[in-house]
Design goal:
With about 425 residues, the chain is α/β, with parallel strands linked by helices. The chain is about 40% helix and about 20% strand. A seven-stranded mixed β-sheet has the order 3-2-7-17-18-19-20, with helices on one face. Strands 8, 9, 10, 11 and 12 form a five-stranded parallel β-sheet that branches. Strands 5-4-1-6 form a four-stranded mixed β-sheet, with no helix packed on it. Helix 11 packs antiparallel against helix 12. The mean pLDDT is about 95. Zinc ion binds next to loops.
């Protein structure tokens, strides 16, 4: 299939912008991307004129999307009280069906916002996986592992770890769109032996470990009470830095901790909106990029954001970095686009995030016939406006693995009206207790 667009942004190693551009897709992979005038002849069987701008789909590197069930709950509370008083009691009452419907609604919202990959840390991982597979989105599933308060006996970390190993055996690689890792919640919700066992299993499986790290200033006290040291050190001692680690938030890391993470090639999921809403602070992304760390952006759960629109994070990341540094060059426009696409893919170790031959055919179409793109005379203007003036409302079509899941702004793979109804009804039950 050959797609002809008014503009193609490849986000390759050198971000090339082609006006007009061509994208060739064979099966679930990109065969060629570039200027229309240079497009190769030969094997293309079908041409589709899509107009607009084609770019890689956005990569959400930290989410708990089934939390659409708790959207807006506990507004105004700091993280620890929000978890203890509002979220964990509700999560203790979740059924797999609740999670399936929460994830279905989450997938529709993500896809319509142009997000083609989402990294999920949650309970009932089989329900999360089933819902993601049904919606067609690419998913890195990291089953939650923690001592969950209020869930009664049998809800200790050991059971969650065993379940995660079984889920990995059953679902890793499913339909070419599912990758299974491990999701130990945080150093403050697991004992030392829990972290060690996660590291051991991850090494056996060569699996990604995805966890919350140094999200708030206050949690340092909890981590020290449990481990006798700060979070970065606790993870190092448990062996977690020797494998593939994705550290969500990483707000309260000093230079020593960042150096340690950089030496071990730890990836970071930056969640500016969640961190701002919960009053957690601002991650030092420019310092991470200076150290050549792999950084992507995440929505976090819709109960702490309160939506799954990654375009907002893409703009908020440089906005906050510049505001904090009093420096308009603290985080560049291309840095923002990279965080949302290629950087996120690198953080997850996936073959998506850019439109280059051999990469996964996950891409989106952005409408250019809009005031947001006026005037855009040269290529630099176009990229600037894409970050600073456009938004997810201009995403019209979304493809994952070459399959069109959103057409004309409508998600075709999810019955959204039914999902909204189910989530409304279930959310009422979960909050009533
Ligand atoms: Zn989170």
């Amino acid at each position: 299939m050959r797609y002809l667009a008014d503009c193609v942004v490849t986000m390759g190693a050198e971000c090339r912008l082609h006006r007009p551009g061509v994208l060739d897709v064979i099966g679930d992979r990109i065969a060629w991307a570039g200027a229309a005038s240079e497009a190769p002849g030969g094997t293309i069987v079908e041409e589709r004129h899509v107009g607009g701008l084609l770019m890689p789909g956005l990569v959400n590197v930290h989410g708990h999307s089934p939390m659409t069930l708790f959207r807006g709950a506990g507004d105004g509370l700091p993280l620890q009280r929000w978890l203890r008083d509002v979220i964990w009691p509700r999560e203790g009452r979740l059924s797999p069906d609740d999670v399936w419907w929460g994830m279905q609604l989450g997938c529709a919202e993500l896809l319509r916002a142009g997000v083609t990959t989402t990294c999920e840390l949650y309970f009932h991982p089989r329900a999360v996986a089933d819902a993601a597979l049904a919606a067609g989105i690419r998913c890195v599933l990291t089953p939650g592992i923690l001592d969950l308060p209020d869930a009664g006996s049998g809800a200790g970390w050991q059971r969650f770890l065993e379940e995660a190993a079984l889920v990995h055996a059953d679902l890793d690689g499913r339909e070419g769109r599912m990758t299974v890792g491990l999701g130990p919640h945080a150093a403050y919700t697991l004992p030392r032996e829990g972290l060690v066992e996660v590291a051991t299993l991850a090494a056996q499986l060569d699996a990604l470990v995805h966890m919350h790290v140094a999200e708030t200033r206050d949690e340092d006290e909890l981590v020290r009470a449990r481990h006798g040291c700060g979070a970065a050190e606790a993870l190092a001692r448990a062996g977690l830095l020797d494998g593939r680690l994705l550290a969500a938030h990483s707000v309260w890391l000093d230079d020593t901790a960042l150096d340690l993470f950089a030496r071990h090639d730890v990836a970071v999921a930056h969640c500016p909106q969640s961190n701002a809403k919960l009053g957690s602070g601002v991650a030092r992304v420019p310092r991470m990029l200076e150290r050549q760390m792999r950084v992507g952006i995440g929505t976090d759960g819709p109960a702490s954001n309160d939506n799954l629109d990654l375009w907002e994070e893409l703009r908020l990341a440089p906005l906050i970095a510049r505001a904090v540094a009093c420096d308009a060059s603290a985080l560049g426009t291309m840095d923002a686009l990279t965080l949302g696409t290629r950087g996120g893919a690198a953080a997850l170790g996936l073959d998506c995030g850019s439109l280059e031959p051999g990469r996964l055919a996950d891409f989106v179409r952005v409408e250019l016939d809009d005031a947001a793109f006026v005037p855009a005379d040269d290529d630099a203007d176009m990229l600037t406006l894409l970050v600073w003036a456009a938004s997810s409302r201009l995403v019209t079509d979304v493809w994952v693995a070459g399959r069109r899941l959103v057409a004309g702004g409508v998600c075709r793979s999810v019955d959204e009206a039914r999902a909204r109804e189910e989530v409304t009804r279930r959310a009422r039950r979960l909050s009533a207790g």
